[in-house]
Specification:
- The protein is of the alpha+beta class.
- Helices cover about 20% and strands about 50% of the residues.
- It folds into three domains: about 130 residues, no CATH class; about 90 residues, YbbR-like domain (RNA Polymerase Alpha Subunit, Chain A, domain 2), CATH 2.170.120.40; about 70 residues, RNA Polymerase Alpha Subunit, Chain A, domain 2 (Beta Complex), CATH 2.170.120.
- The protein has a five-stranded antiparallel β-sheet. Strands 12, 16, 18, 19 and 22 form a five-stranded antiparallel β-sheet that branches. Strands 5-1-4-8 form a four-stranded mixed β-sheet.
- β18 and β19 form a beta hairpin.
- It is rod-shaped and about 125 Å long.
């Protein structure tokens, strides 16, 4: 019995000693290896250049000690975001970023865990000069807009500005199609709101406006009858005129402000014509529309 107990305690002692030895060994271990880090530009557009490849690989040596030495591959193929201010034009068709910028970012991010270095002095990003043009903005989703019963458009939906200046690669500018997408909306009266311009992206950017104003106006439409005396030659004729238009415009103006009556003489009669004087006013009917000539 005592022999078994001694044997078990000996095994535990040996196991504990092995663990302690392993920990001491690991804590003193130092290791380095070569990994790949990707320098990435969040935008294809840097100043007046278009970057044709926004992610460039850089061979980097990473080193660590202790338990971290066992995890060097954890940062392999990591990505570092390069700010626009780090780029410089090296030559036509080539932007350059100093490798020291990337190493500094890595050492700052993983301070106390890993140490980074590289033998490469700079990273080259292929680029081309930006194209610039003005692109019209189309309105999509008109079917999402509804009007209340008996309403009509005073001013149909429009965007302001209706076109914007964009910059991008030659292909992106050539294929540029910009739009605004209208939401579901009950258009009751005057409305104006901002919407984002769709169709922009990493290869195509707006010079100024990325949002535009969508506006329009609708109104309740009514019909109204006017009865006016109208002098034709040597006679006075009572004329009934039906007109339609926005309620506010019809009820706030006199007949003379809305419609102009004229009589056109023919061989045997007069033709009465009514012409609207205001926008959105329509003449529906004129009764009578002809009057016979009175013979002397």
């Amino acid at each position: 019995m005592l022999k078994r107990l001694f044997h078990r305690e000996l095994l535990l002692f040996l196991a504990l000693t092995s663990v302690i030895w392993a920990l001491i060994t690991v804590s003193k271990a130092e290791r380095s290896t070569t990994i790949v880090i990707y320098a990435n530009s969040p935008s294809s557009i840097v100043e007046d250049q278009f970057i044709t490849d926004t992610s460039i690989a850089l061979n980097v040596e990473v080193s660590a000690s202790g338990i971290n030495a066992l995890r060097l591959q954890k940062v392999d193929k990591d990505m570092v975001v390069v700010e626009a201010s780090a780029f410089a034009l090296k030559s036509e068709g080539m932007l350059v970023v100093k490798s020291a910028e990337i190493i500094a970012l890595l050492n700052s991010t993983y301070r106390g865990i890993y140490t980074f270095s590289t033998a490469t002095a700079e990273i080259l990003f292929p680029c081309e000069e930006l194209e610039r043009t003005r692109v019209p903005i189309t309105i999509e989703g008109i079917q999402n807009i509804s009007l209340p019963s008996d309403y009509k458009w005073l001013h149909s939906i429009s965007v302001d500005p209706d076109s914007i200046d964009v910059v991008g690669s030659t292909e992106a500018v050539f294929r540029a199609r910009l739009r605004v997408d209208l939401p579901n909306f009950l258009w009751d009266g005057n409305h104006a709101f901002e919407l984002p311009v769709e169709g922009l992206g990493s290869s195509l950017a707006a010079v100024s406006d990325e949002r535009v104003e969508v506006r329009g106006a609708s109104a309740l439409w009514i019909e109204n009858k006017f009865e006016v005396p109208f002098v034709i030659g040597n006679q006075i004729v009572d004329v009934k005129i039906w007109v339609s238009g926005p309620k506010k415009g019809l009820l706030s103006r006199t007949f003379e402000e809305l419609v102009a009556l004229t009589a056109v003489q023919n061989e045997i009669n007069y033709t009465i014509e009514a012409a609207p004087l205001k926008e959105n006013i329509s003449v529906l009917s004129v009764t009578p529309n002809m009057v016979e000539l009175m013979r002397q």
